[in-house]
Amino acid sequence: MPRKIILDVDTGSDDACAIMLAYLHKDIDLLAVCTVKGNQPLKYTTENTLRIRDLLHADFPVYKGCPGSLVKNIVYPRILPTPNADAYDEEGNKIHIHQELFDLPASDGEVEAMNAPDFYVDYLMHASEPVTVVAVGPLTNLAVALIMEPDIVKNIEEIVIMGGAWNITNATLAAEFNIYDDPEAAQRVLHCGAKITMVPLDATHTAYISRDDSAQLRKIGTPASLFAADLIDLRILVHDYAQPLEVPHTCALHDPLTIAYLIDPNVLEDVRFCNVEVSLSGLTEGQTCVDQRAIQENRNVHFAFRGNHELFSKIFIDAFRS
Ligand code: BDR
Ligand code: CA
Description:
Bound molecules: beta-D-ribofuranose, calcium ion
Strand order of the largest sheet: 3-2-1-6-7-8-14-11
Helix content: 25-40%
Radius of gyration: 18 Å
CATH superfamily: Ribonucleoside hydrolase-like
Number of domains: 1
């Protein structure tokens, strides 16, 4: 039986790859996609999601979610200055890791009338069987839904989160972007009582994707595989410039690793069940504090310390052959 999932995205180049993998893989039943602000303002993350749906000729429903974080945007000052990480291509043009989706044709597709938190509450309160929620953007939609109706947890089989960090960070010296963007929402979700698996930067950087992988996608030659190859090559350029991985000329593809885990859990390695809390203020705002003591209380998260590059790239590429 394919795993039924609701996918929450801030599309985004790697979110686009997560949507494609979830839609194309036979082991996943993509029930709905919810959008949230994050990589771009909500207007663009939603439009990007609709463009990917068009690219796939798919018909999954899209629910537009929250345009701002729970409290972060109303408390001043909560945004730390980040270093300028602009990258440039061979011709000297500035490139942005999430720009490429705007090259797809504009979508005339529609979003559903209900907003994303209402959809979570409505769907999960009436579901006949538990579903898995995969969140690869800031956790605002799910946190709002949990505040509105904590009982939705009864129909959540598992929450899989791309977010957090142990040894590698990207948004600040202490924090990963999705958690940093709405730390209160993340803290709310981490304590909701559902089974939670966290796919942090430590896993996504070790399950890297290479130029060999994008070359294989180009050989497949479908519109979706060619677009995925373009996104990977773009991400490799930006990573080489701003956040080089241990293996040169590779990139972290982050978000689809969550979907790959649902297809084959072995794609995550060194997964430890431990207490994870989110720092809500100061220099460490948005940091995921991962308890590594032998004796600890409140274990709430299965936290993956590593990913498997070979298995991940195989799962990702094979999905485009179907
Ligand atoms: C996460 O942040 C976003 O920029 C990416 O889409 C990914 O979900 C990585 O830190
Ligand atoms: Ca994302």
